[in-house]
Amino acid sequence: MNFVDNKLIRKAKAGDMQAFAELVYQYKDKIFNLAYRMLGNTQEAEDVSQETFLRVYSNIDRYDEKYKFSTWIYKIATNLSIDRIRKRRTTYSLDDYWNEEEGLDWYTRLPNQSIGPEESIISNEEINQVHKAILNLPEKYRVIMTLRYVEDLSIKEISEIVNLPISTVKTRLLRGREYIRKEISNKYTTVDRSGKYEMS
């Protein structure tokens, strides 16, 4: 935990509302973005954000300062988002998409500094397709993919948030990446040797 968080949390535990307000200010955008990437709905993301901070406020006395505050608050927001995803009853398997012999580096298709304006537009379209594909993943893969590739959390942090072994987190990341790689590949076809793409 960083020094600022540590100081604010101790003040908030002592009843300092200004300190709690500063914590909310520091994390409100991060929590909203996390919820939005998982749910794909602005209103639901706002609801999850509000509920997250209500729970943080109600349970801050129980927070163990041995652990990172960011991990704790992400865990609350993640669980609330999962609850909403499960209510939608969207279920299917990624087993049909899994093939260990195929490449798994879908993220290498994202923009780099060497591409030109036209390729940059195409790459931005692909980024949008990646985000859409993540939203279509089953909950157990969507959560981990969002935490890793949208929130940029470490595998260890994700393991702590979702209460799963690191090996399981890695497996779900591999399967999630493979699904998204195939989804993106199906959206684009090469039309000539110049490297231009068009929507299929």
From TrEMBL:
Q: Does the keyword Transmembrane apply?
A: no
Residue intervals passing through the bilayer:
none
Q: What GO biological process term is on the record, naming one?
A: DNA-templated transcription initiation
Tell me which positions the record assigns to the signal sequence: none
Entry's Gene Ontology molecular function annotations: DNA binding; sigma factor activity
Which keywords does UniProt give here?
Sigma factor, Transcription, Transcription regulation
Query: What InterPro entries does the record point to?
Result: RNA_pol_sigma-70-like (IPR039425), RNA_pol_sigma-70_dom (IPR014284), RNA_pol_sigma70_r2 (IPR007627), RNA_pol_sigma70_r4_t2 (IPR013249), RNA_pol_sigma_r2 (IPR013325), RNA_pol_sigma_r3/r4-like (IPR013324), WH-like_DNA-bd_sf (IPR036388)
Xref: NCBIfam families: PRK09641.1, sigma70-ECF
Q: Protein name, please?
A: RNA polymerase sigma factor SigW
The organism encoding this protein is Vulcanibacillus modesticaldus
